[in-house]
Amino acid sequence: MAVLVTAEVKGQTEQGYAGMLAALGEVLKRSPGFILHAAHPTADGWRIIEVWDSKQDSDRFFAQNVAPNLPPGIRPKRSAQELHGVLKA
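Below the sequence we write its predicted structure tokens.
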């Protein structure tokens, strides 16, 4: 079942987010189960929002690609919510 994965990233800067996206964007687009990525600044960092086919797909991508590349002190707080449905263009 598709999931909405939200990551609250306290302390992340626009520059830090842009660097991560530049490094991982193409890999993300080709990752099994990936559907959508969006992000925006918050009062104390960044919020990343992704839709995946499954939590397992998201967790695998995070463990293999994101976690090893995080700057010191940056640790996203991730949560997942099963979605009732996803409509793609």
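Residues 18 and 25 are 10 Å apart (CA to CA).
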